[in-house]
Design brief:
Length: 221
């Protein structure tokens, strides 16, 4: 299972892969990427940046603001080592990519991954959620009095997982549709043939009068 720190570092590298950013803009984009359920604080971001600076994954430059104050800002950019690390991590489709936080980050950068990697992650995530659903359904039988609020929370959680499973199924079908080869240029797609109506009798083609007319072979010349 990927740690929260590792997931955050992957998200930082993915954003810096697009363009260099200063701390305020980087935090703003990370919050947009991770969603409103997890607001990232500077107390989490800057220690992560320090670790990545020490590992050589990112570098910092000083830029002068164009505003009235003209104060200097530190701008972070990804290094070649960071690009290589990001490329290696983003193609990992193992079980850690199916977990909640790591999956959301991987999905945000799906446009940079190959189709087979996307499918393995989507199918792995769906399988992981299906396991949760199976366990939740097995635990439905109460062994004692059940608080109605606990029951409502359980129902809400189950329905949320069911919705995500349906969403993942739609995504998987869409990805597989993209992988189907298109017909070559100049080859028309055969039009679908409607089946005969239910109960209708189909009659074989009968020979016409012209086809029944006897044709004598030519005589000797």
């Amino acid at each position: 299972m990927a740690s929260k720190a590792a997931t955050l570092e992957l998200a930082v590298l993915g954003l810096l892969h697009e363009s260099p950013l200063h701390g305020y803009e980087l935090r703003k984009r990370l919050n947009l990427l991770m969603g409103w359920t997890r607001l990232l604080s500077y107390g989490s971001l800057y220690p992560a940046l320090k670790r990545m600076l020490k590992a050589g994954l990112v570098a910092e430059d000083t830029a002068t603001s164009t505003g009235v104050s003209r104060r200097q800002r530190i701008v972070y950019r990804i290094t070649p080592a960071g690009e290589a690390f990001f490329a290696e991590r983003i193609t990992d489709a193992g079980p850690s990519a199916w977990e909640d936080e790591d999956f959301h980050t991987r999905f945000a950068f799906f446009s940079r991954t190959d189709l087979d990697v996307r499918l393995r992650i989507l199918e792995g995530r769906r399988g992981r959620l299906q396991e949760r659903l199976d366990r939740a359904r097995d635990d439905r039988t109460p062994t004692g009095p059940v608080d109605r609020y606990v029951s409502e929370l359980h129902r809400h959680s189950t329905e949320s997982v069911e919705r995500e499973v349906r969403w993942l199924t739609d995504l998987i079908e869409a990805e597989r549709g993209f992988s189907r080869p298109a017909p070559p240029d100049g080859v028309p797609t055969p039009a679908p043939v409607d089946p005969p109506a239910r109960g209708a009798r189909t009659r074989p083609n009968r020979p016409t009068k012209a086809s029944r007319r006897r044709v004598d072979p030519p005589g000797p010349t």
